[in-house]
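Q: My hope is that you can spare some time for a protein that puzzles me. Underneath my words sits a plain record pairing an amino acid chain with its backbone structure tokens. Those tokens are not coordinates but codes from a learned vocabulary of shapes. Thank you; the sequence and its tokens follow:
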Amino acid sequence: MGTTEPKPRRITMTPAARRVLAAAARLFYERGIHAVGVDLISAEAGVTKKTLYDRFGSKEQIVVEYLADRDERWRAFLAEHLDAAGQAPRERVLAVFDASRAWAEEFGPRGCSMVNAHAEIGDPAHPAHPIITGQKRWMLALFTGLAAEIAPETADSTARTLMLLHEGALVAHGLGVFPDAIAQAREQARALLA
């Protein structure tokens, strides 16, 4: 799925940069982006602040790398589920929900990292903003393409409804509003596509 979002500047990952990114990713997801400073990241990564700044240049760039890495991993994870679902578009739609449920169980007890980051980074000028909105636009494009294979005349409306079900389920999961929100959203998607 294509996107019109500008590509963020990325860095080349050295072993020290990978340690910084791993520590930052864990801390940002667990505690929030604003709550975590470079002192804590460098301490957790076992590197000096100088090394952190030499590799990334700024905390903003660490946030870019964290979200870009999370997005890349999500897309690869989802691709595996879509491939396993075969070519039937209805099954592929449901596979998105299955992938999200599996991802949430393994990597996302606090909900969607993009939604969480957007709550902290609402400024479109922030270099990570295009990654956040780009992932969500990509997901909408994925749902639109799948919906077009099922019912082309209602593809846009169906895709938006699927997107709302999906994103709402991720938020409800992260908040712990009720048990197994993603599975419930999957069943609503199945009913929508019947």
In short: The radius of gyration is 18 Å. The chain has a mean pLDDT of 94.
